[in-house]
Amino acid sequence: MQDAQFFPSLLRRANMHRLFCAALAALLAAACAGQKPGPEPTQAPAPSEAAPAPPPRLVQVSLTALPNWDADDPAPALTAFQTVCRRFKSKAPSAAVSPAWPELGTASAWAAVCADAAAVPATSARDFIARRFVAYRLVAEPGLFTGYFEPEVPGSRVRGGPYQTPLYAKPDDIVTADLGAFSDKYQGDTILGRIVKGRFVPYHDRAAVVAGALQGSGLEIVWLADPVDGFFIEIQGSGLIALAEGGTMRVGYAGKNGRAYRAIGRDLIARGAVRREDMSMQAIRRWLADNPREAPALMNLNQSVVFFTERTGPGPVGAAGTPLTPMRSLAVDPAFVPLGGLVWLDVPHSNAGAPPIRRLVVAEDVGGAIKGAQRGDLFWGTGAQAGDNAGRMASQGQFYLLAPK
């Protein structure tokens, strides 16, 4: 996320304490900066008055106790791990990879196993995992597991005809404020805004952007035929555009406006427009298509706007900086699960009757709605079929975490 070099000097002005407090009050509810939003579960959780669950903990188990251990081929996950695990070399060797669980080891331990993994062929993936890793079962309430994908939609590099909905590059007037620099209470928290007449104010929300707040700025990187396509590309954080001129264009997450993300599926449930048990990404799209007059106002309830950059090469790319692998890449909460780490997934399939998803996956992504010890978002791939499966995934399940021996 871009830093504004002039912001520290701005804070030294005599009246900045008053301005900052006003900005803080206005913006503290906004999402933290620096990561794609990620698909928030479209199903609203049922109200509960149950007593608070005990804190999650790890219990070591045998690898052979992992569900479907003997049947899963871990080679695709190992291939992804061989690339993403290089990130551990850039960390302090003694640093714990998980802020929550020291059992998962240090950066140096992961860097060492990463170095060994580089020479392991796909045919030896299982033996390598068994030789170099131990497994921990996460003892906690069953977590929510959702799915995400890379939409493939029509578009054009040039505005014209049906192509009237832009995706924007990140504006250069977005200012990032590190709240931890002002109070220890806000360590790790950042807010985004812009400077208007010497005041730090919230950045344009979705309604303002749709109304033309960025029009004529030269930030448009592609034009889509359907505003709903653009809305869902923002939720997913990436997209593949089938260009009217021929060929394709891949866009990836570049930043956001700092406004809080709002799952409009919950609004549809609250209105009685969609039953809770019927809620899915597909249900939201149907309602938006069937109610074109009301659709813009509903989408504008989600004030968050995502900005994009054009990407070349394999993709989409996750928060760890590596291309995502369908059904092997997982978005996690890095406060618990280390990016680059290995996870054994045990969740129901989104298709009724299909075998459960029990396999080795790699923590390669994050999301603004992916919060909690046992919370995951599985990448299903690119296109309509992947979207169909991902959009219906909202399952209670669990995972196991691997750590170097």
Secondary-structure map with pairings?
Blueprint: H1 7-11, H2 16-27, E1 57-61, H3 75-84, H4 107-117, H5 125-132, E2 133-139, E3 143-150, E4 152-156, E5 165-168, E6 175-178, E7 190-196, E8 199-202, H6 206-210, E9 220-224, H7 227-236, E10 238-243, E11 248-256, H8 264-271, H9 281-290, H10 295-300, E12 306-311, E13 329-331, E14 342-347, E15 357-365, E16 376-382, H11 384-391, E17 394-404
Parallel strand pairs: 3-16, 4-10, 13-15
Antiparallel strand pairs: 1-2, 2-17, 3-17, 4-9, 5-9, 6-7, 7-8, 10-11, 11-12, 13-16, 14-15, 14-17
Characterise this structure.
With 405 residues, the protein is α+β, with helices and mostly antiparallel strands. It has eleven helices and 17 strands. The strands form three sheets. The chain has a six-stranded mixed β-barrel with strand order 3-16-13-15-14-17. It is globular, with a radius of gyration of 22 Å. It starts with 6 loop residues before the first helix and ends with a strand. The model is unreliable at 1-35 and 40-48 (pLDDT under 50).
